[in-house]
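Let's sit down with a protein and look at its sequence and fold side by side. Which protein we use is up to you, so please pick one and set it down. Label the sequence line and the structure token line clearly, so we can match residues to local backbone shapes. Go ahead whenever you are ready, and we will take it from there:

***
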Amino acid sequence: MPLLPLAPGIHYLPSAVNSVVIENGEGGALLIDTGLDESHARKLLRSLAELDLRPSAILNTHSHADHHGGNAFILSKFPGLPVYAPPLEAAIINHPLLEPLSLYGACPPPELRTKFLLAPASPAQALDAGTQTIGGVRAELIEIPGHAAQMYAVRFGEVLYAADGLFGLDALHKHPLTFCADSGQQKASAAQLGELAGIVTVLPGHGEPVGELGQLARDNLAAYERTTATVLSAVQEGPATTDELLARVCDRLQIEMTNAGAAVLNRAVVAAHLTELLGAGQVGLGVTGNRMLFSGT
């Protein structure tokens, strides 16, 4: 699959997770997010070769497995290639077990050690936000926490790679429980991106490039607010545990979970919105009969 252009010297490989390729003018290219697995990484390297480019560095915007799962294969072909990520996310990329461990809350069972939650380790170096030169490419790294504990959007002049700070409309519809570690920060980051001036093209981590950054941000914010409202409605039905609330929310949104991975991811989303609602004083938390219960206030 060939790379598609975003601007001169800026390309992307469309897939379930997009990868961005930025030429450095010396035959090299910065790779941003390497996809879920070896299959995606192979396509990415073939696409580079078609343009006579070699990778000069990897930047992972955050540590979710679908954004750094291709690192290991690329490093097997280009040993010593530097890998960068936000500081907190770099720790997880170096020690990927931290992802399913944090979601499950204990040593994860085999059902939570799939490639979707547990990518191969790679030696990521911590990189601060701000304007940085990475693999010969000058880029602005914008910190946008919420979807992950610490994530970067990447700006190249008039082009913005929003990573998972903004989702395409199809992704929002397909996944009404959009993953987040902190729903309040997720909303603040989406609003922050929507206010950026001078952006002509924005590419979400999941979805096609669009020209209306403000509208995309508003669509994302509306989706996040719907989730908060749905969680609040589930709590108002009566005191319940997080897992009971997850079932109520899924019933309301017509979601059918069929595997443990989906359950822990969606449970985390509900928990994040519960924390936001607790902070706003709209939900209470207590322990009754050895059960941690959320209730309306």
